[in-house]
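Ligand: zinc ion. Inputs:
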Amino acid sequence: MDLLLSTWKEIEAYLGHSKAIIVPLGSVEQHGPSGRIGTDVICPQAIAEGIAAGADALVGPAIAFGVCPFNLAFPGTISTRAATFMALIEDYVRSLARQGFERFYFLNGHGGNIAPVQAACQDLHAARSFNPQAKADRMRLRVRNWWEYPTVSRMRRELYGEWEGMHATPSEIAITQALHPDQTQGPRMSPPQRVSKEFLHAHAGDNHGSAEEHRRRFPDGRVGSDPSLANPEDGRRLLAAAVADGISDYRAFLVEP
Ligand SMILES: [Zn+2]
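Predicted complex:
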């Protein structure tokens, strides 16, 4: 079930049997020479739809914009500030919470969103605990990065090893190829650029610096990945694995005390 395609009567009826909603979080940013700019919203949106179909759940509108200031030197990238992104998350939750929604399952597609969505969740919990009228004890917020689902994580390692890299990864590109088969492989790419374990550690959660420096360092937008390994068949398998992992995780979330 999709909130944007529903009537308010249907949402009211849904609230009669579930207080949970899945919210895809994305980013509008360059994804290397062959990747679509919408990759980070296309992936969690499709996975969320699969989870909703399998677990009789509701998918809310994706928050397509994410926090990616480090990619602003690449044409087409649109970043929110972290504070804007946090405010969007908080307004989204507050709006639906007053109508009775209690469980928010954020399915994230972008590393730079991890810290701000977690901070927004902390703020929401804190705000509610100051209000004795609020049903603070019933509010549950879960954040999941689709690429960290256990089966997906294993497949990414098996399929691409270290060439999965950090950004414009073959796994995310493969999923977009499965969903949009008209996507070309893009231009021939130079050999991918290996990044060190230290770099991965220091830049976890897309903790990159200035946009100009980022583009100088990674001129075609890939960060340690080889997206030329991506293919639609891998994408179908990764998508199916993410949906299966997501359904069990979402079901566990529903009964989390
Ligand atoms: Zn991405």
